[in-house]
Each structure stands twice: as C-alpha cells, then as structure tokens.
Write a structure and sequence with these properties.
heterodimer, A: alpha+beta, Alpha-Beta Plaits, two-stranded antiparallel sheet, 2 helices, 4 strands, 24% strand, B: alpha+beta, Cytochrome p450, 43% helix, 11% strand
Amino acid sequence: MSRALPQASAVKIRADMDLCQGHAVCKEESPSVFDVDSASNKVVVKVARPDESLRAEIQRAVKFCPTRALRLEED
Amino acid sequence: MSAVPETPEVSTPSPATRARGMAPPVLSRGWPLLGHLQELRRRPIELFARVRRECGEIGEMNFAGNRVVLLSGEEAQEAFFRGSDEQLDQAAAYPFMSPIFGRGVLFDATPEQRKQGLRNQSLRDSFMRGHAEVIAAETRGMMQKLGEHGEIDLLDFFSELTIYTSSACLIGRGFRAELSPEYFRVFYELEKGTDAIAYVNPYLPLPAFRQRDRARRKLVELLTGVFARRARQPSEKRELFDVLLSLKQPDGSPRFTIDKVTGMFISMMFAGHHTTSGTAAWTLIELLRHPEFGARVVGELDSLYADGRDVSYQALREIPELEGAIKEALRLHPPLILLMRKVMHDFHYKHWTVPAGKLVAVSPAISNRLPECFPEPDRYDPDRYREGREEDTKLFAWIPFGAGRHRCVGAAFAMMQLKAIFSTLLREYTFELSQPPESYRNDHSKMVVQLAQPCRARYRRRAP
C-alpha cells in the first residue's frame, strides 16, 4: 500500500465471499468487527481497519472460521 | 492460493462473450453407448486416476451418453469450486438422488423452489453444545448393548448410531424417540439404491432400484405410523415434523403430503448419515492398524477428561490427536468420491472450454492424494494437521467436504459429532481388528460408498 501517512492499525481483514457460508463463528469471536448479512447469509466486515487491541479476537475469528474464508493481512 | 484462477486471454470482459477454447481430451477405451459407465460401477477411483494419468488436469469421461469432464490438480479444482451457481448447477448433476428424495424435494426442485425451501436451522453454532450432549447419550445407549466384551460389525454399529444421532439432532428428539433399529436397515437399503446405472435411467426395473423403492415405501409407511401416533398425543412438544404436517393450503388441504415430508427428512438425514458412519468406522480401523496413533488418541482423551469434564464441553474444543486421526481418515477414505456440477453456460479453464449441457466433476479420492499437495500421499499420517504443517488448509486440495459455496454445511457438526462419539467410546472400551488389517475396504459399486462387509472388530471394556 502506498500511503503517505502511517495507519493507526496494521490489521487488515480479507474475506473470501466464494468461501463464506454464514456460519457466524467470526461474529461470536469478534462482534464489533464482524456481522452476517441476513439476506445474503455472508460475512460483513464492519471495520476495515480495526484497532490493534482487537487483534487477538480477530485472529481467533480467522482460526475458527469453519470455511477458512477470513485472512489477516499486514501492511 | 485463493486468487481467482488466471485466464490466459486478456480481452475477456465476461464469460458469456468469451471465444470458445479447445475441447478437453477424451478418455480412451469407452464402450459403445455405455462409455465408461461399467468402469465407474466397478473401479471408480481407478477410472478417475486413469483420467489424470492419460489426459492430465482435464479429461472427459462418458457415462452412458452423459459427458463428465473431470478436473484435477489444485488449480483446476479451485476453478471448479469457484464456479457460480448460475454457471455450474449442483442439483442437476445427481440423477440417482431424485428417486430417493422423491418428486419436488431438493435435487428434483428448481433453484427458485430450493431457495424458498426449508433452511435447516439445526446446524447453527449455537445448537452445537446441545447436539454434543445428545450424541454422547446416544453413544452411551449403544454401549449399553455391548456388555463386557464381544464383537461388532463396524458398518452396522456406526450406521445404527448415526441414524439415531442425525435424526435427534437434525430433525428432533421426539422424532428420534420413535425410531427403532429397523430404520437403519431400511435407510441402508435406500443408500444402496444409488447405482450409477441411474445415468441410463434412474427408474430401470433393476433389483437395486426395486429395493430402493421398496425401502422408500417402507420409510413412508413407518413415518405415517409415527405421525399418526404424534397426532393422537398433541400435548407433546411440537417439533419440525408436527409443524410441517399441520401447515395448510389456503383451501384447507395439507400443504405437504406425508410422502413429501418423508422425502424432506430423507434429504436432511442422507447427507449426514453414511458419510459420518463411514468416517467413524475408518477412523477406528486406521487407529487399530496404526496402534502408536491409537495409543496417542486414547492417552489424549484420558488426560483431557481426567478432571471429569463433560463431553458436551470438550467435543466443541480442540482435541488435536483425535482431530488429526479423523481428518486423515477423511483424506484417505473420503465418503464422497465424485462431486459434480452441470454446466449451464460454457465453462472455461485455461485454454479449454466445456460447453453448456455437459457435466464437470472433481474427485476427492484423487485430489486428497495429490503428491504435490500431500507429501507421501498414501501414507497414514495424522501429524499432517499439526501446527506448522496443517495440510488441511490447502482449501482446494484437501476436499473431503468439498470447497467453496457448496462446501458441506454440516462439516463442523460432523467433526464435533465424531469427537463426541470417540470421546465416549474410547474411554470405555478398547478395540482390536478381528480380520487381517488389509481386508477392510470400501464397496464402490454404488455412488454412495459404504464399508464392505464383513468389517468386524472385537471390543473389551477397559479396566476402571
């Protein structure tokens, strides 16, 4: 990423919509970051750049996603 | 790894306008009319391996006039699993399932009907703890019949157990309470009715199909009795099937017939039954073939449960040795060996095109043993899944549950179920194979793979 200013958070989430099946495990692990859209039954990442303090719970969401649809990317 | 497969052409705005590529190579030695159908019915895995050997990552088979293009290799499999519903239709690909579910149920319904159909809520994460409790209780129920020592047939034992667990968890406990052991035999007959000769016509007057239809009629009959009993006792807690049967059309007539509800129940239980039953049996067989891993699993369970914690708690958490053993059984003995889709719009892969009307397929039996994805692919090695290796994270290669949007929705439930079963069983009993280790094998003569009988094991209650 070619940003001039440093970002507040280095945590970046990528969701693969071909893989997501709406099991909502991510929402259980990290409710402030993830939701599941009831119409599409797919994950919604509510915060694109979540705060560093949420890293541990986001890592659990990534790890326990039953379809491994989530990825954590670093800048 | 999860990038969209690259396409060689650069100026391709949408798949619909893309120029046609080459036709995939056609597999040799097809018979007149039947093509490779007999080979499919006798040695399916050898047939799929021959496609990869002779044709490479894409090759066309012929099942009695149905052209099925088999894709293999991580990249080709990813293209298959990333196909949209509009392009690759899952339901149209399984003609042998329609007579089992019945008219208007699941694979015989239009995509629109399916969208409006039943969305089974029972697989939600929040129900899992209750399910684990039920599964542990059902396993204990089966163990009560075992006594101190004796011998079981693994197919019969796990088929019966998983009929109880899947009916209790996926349909309802009141419904489960109505089931006797005869159901699992009837269900087994139904599963045996999936002869690939259905590609010619699923209603041919053949013994396997007559048996299938008889089994289905028997199930309708059994359920009619269950429903009648339930109707006489309306005070009981209402469950899914009470609701389904009480729904009325605007004119007052029943919304669903008993035949249709039976079909719905079969469809809800079918996917979770022979798959889980077979995986339980293979997990145990492989642990007994490799006693060093067996000892590790039993040791792990003994220490995890030493503090008296409940199966309903632990089965939802990590049990690494046992999970490795289950995953390795799934990799080597996937319950489904051919996943198919009907091509609705021309399907392009690299410089090939599969035209609309044909089928495309992926075989977990081939994919799970690709040497470039799984080092020493034929070796039983539950340590593949330990931290640092995690070979099951190759999402489009390790595919006992499929991948992508149609990945088995019951995968998490199935893993939990197997963990609950073995947490209960292996802390109480030890097992040993009654037959030569190499004599255990799958029967591949039907599209639904089952353990070939005999498949017996001896057991003894562990010293307290």
